[in-house]
Amino acid sequence: MALLEIDNLQTHLTTRRGVNRAVDGVSFTLERGASLGVVGESGSGKSMTALSIMGLLPRPHARVAGGDIRFEGESLLGKTERQMRRIRGGEIALIPQDPMTSLNPVFSVGWQVGEAVGLHQGLRGKARLDRVIESLRRVEVTAPETRLRDYPHQFSGGMRQRVVGAIAVACGPKLLIADEATTALDATIQARYLALLRELRRELGLALLFITHDFGVVARMCDNVVVMYAGRVVERAPTRAIFNSPAHPYTAALMRSSPRLDRRADRLYAIPGAAAGGFARPAGCSFAPRCELAQPRCHAEKPPLVAIGEDRASECWRAEEVFQSGVDNAARVAL
Amino acid sequence: MSAPAAPLLRVDDLNVRFAARRGLFQRGGNADVKAVDGVSFDVMAGETFSVVGESGCGKTTTARAILGVQKPTSGAVLWRGRDIAGLDAAGRRAFRAGVQAVFQDPNASMNPRLRVADFIAEPLLLNVDLSAAERRDRARVALEQVGLRADDLRGFPHEFSGGQRQRIAIARAIASSPELIVLDEPVSSLDVSIRAQIMNLLKALRDERGYSYVFIAHHLGTVRYMSQMVGVMYLGRLMELAESEELFERPSHPYTRALFSAALPDHPDDTREEVLLKDDSVAAPRVEQGCRLRARCPFAMPVCGEIEPPWKEIAPRHFAACHLN
Predict the structure, then answer these.
(1) Is A137 part of any domain?
(2) Which residues on A lie below 8 Å from B279 (Cβ)?
(3) CATH 3.30.499.10 is held by the domain B9-20+32-249
(4) Do B225 and A265 make contact, defined as CB atoms within 8 angstroms?
(5) Which residues of A touch B258 (CB under 8 A)?
(6) What is the ipTM, given to two decimal places?
(7) For position B24, what pLDDT does the model report?
(8) Sheet holding A305-308, edge to edge
(9) What is the pLDDT of residues A272-305, one digit of tens each?
(10) Is residue A118 part of a domain?
């Protein structure tokens, strides 16, 4: 049984302009101890997917309108708020992009880590203090015995994000969701934070769900990846495989439009236009208006989910061709 | 330098200090923060000069000094050989028309109640010879050059997407036919699929119109794609400076190498030299002597604590400040 199963999830936002289908039929699974990247741009539905899992959708505008989210085989959608509070933090923890949204400026850092272990594990007094120090030490906060008396503003951005990490792992969750957790950090600080998360995953057997816009994070951190566009998963694959030969035109275009550090491109491919929001419901593929491979059929009919080998799939009428051209390219480069 | 041509812009031993007040009951007097500490470089006509570094390195303060909105504590910014602090009224007008800027967040830099036409034409008000009709005409031409339509002139900022707004900001920058545009993280707030559009637009404008760019960025792939010259800053000081390809192929300074090694990989199988800096909490922001990287540097030697490393040309047009050289 997979740790987390998302099954045809539909999350709708009700706005003055009508219903925005922010998440429109998303399915994926995450095994125990595995690491999955969810890649997408703004409006792709990646963060709404994360909030749906956590049961933290902004109410009353957003609601899960269909599908299921199962954690260790049990649906999370039928849970009461009380039950969800036990699961959040205890079983599933979240690290958001901006640590100050989850840290309280008027309580010391030690108090805030202590609150988490007190609530979820009932630790008191010395046992609680020891656990706080241990948690801070595990995320490499230097001199945790003294720093636990400091307040969030006395920490740098990278250190604050570590404190959030300490709160997240203090109660021994099975799943850690990182929603653009390192996007705001400087490069050298980001590198250390990602190394720390890898370490935590190995030590604690955590499963990681990385919500990101950056394929570089996926390359460094994830075994598998799903690519989202306009509320749908357009491609799923093992990480190395998707880098070697993407099977969806959107994935391929994103990779071609990102400038690389290891060689200078003369000219980058630029994806034309901008992503459509979740209000429009095109008859065909959502990416078709921006796709250089689009044919009349792509605009008229929803593409099927095409399996590529055993462990990959791409939602595209021309998936096999796209995949094959990537393979051919890789072969040419290798020669 | 081998190029005999005079630089369009020269940053000459620029120092910017900010007074840092200690708390009421703290001892030790007030210490200044050296946001920019003795930075010098030239920008040639038609060239993109990039400044890279992490937050707090002084790259944005340097950009603000170039734009004339941050007064240097000492040193100077020279525009066509003249100190911009000493310009007369006419000289200042010419400088302001000749140097424009595009910032990271187009939402923050646009007035939500100004129509696109007025936003783009605003810098043209400096040119008193232009009639309202001429200003409007120039705004239309600029807007078409960045790939938007003349109809869009009547729109308000909220009617446009983030990428379109950044195009509008670029249109404003080019409307007064500048020679130099300061680009402060112009693509980092945009979606990945939009970034390439904007970078290609900026490159095309540079090639067609001969603009120079001072490009402030932290994403190294973007810098490599855009630049001819690159300077690497750390805690207010230039650590290394070289032609772009030279720097990316043969980085020399430990800080540059650490920065490159920290960049996210282009592929899961990427193997890079691993240069890890020690924790940033040990960094002393106010270094009185020696190299400011020494506490974090994996190669630090005793001399690094005593003498500030000199600025040396370690290869043709490749400079670094490190005792290892």
Answers:
(1) no
(2) 140, 142, 192
(3) no
(4) yes
(5) 188
(6) 0.85
(7) 59
(8) A92-95, A175-179, A207-212, A35-39, A224-229, A232-238, A312-315, A305-308
(9) 888 776 677 789 999 999 999 999 999 999 999 9
(10) no
